[in-house]
Amino acid sequence: xxxxxxxxxxxVAPNILALLLIAFLVEKIKSLPAxxxxxxxxxxxxxxxxxxIALIITVVMILFAAEDIKGFALVLETVYxxxxxxxxxxVGLAVALYVV
Length: 100
What we know:
Blueprint: H1 8-30, H2 37-45, H3 50-80, H4 84-99
Helix pairs in contact: 3-4
């Protein structure tokens, strides 16, 4: 929000580039006998990486979820003038209801 349209190069462009890269690799990925990231890495590097990769992915996803909740809470704070705590609770409840 603070950088304006220039922020597109830091957020949107890398996602588009990643999707284009994946488009080139999709046939090779589909041919693997794996569904999750853990399984792909386990096929490549062996079973001893299963636990460390699972822990890393868990931590990253928790941080990603916290970032999303904080980001949308900031939008609610800015647009509706809500208290930061209540805006985070609203977003958290919305995500919880959606997941359930």
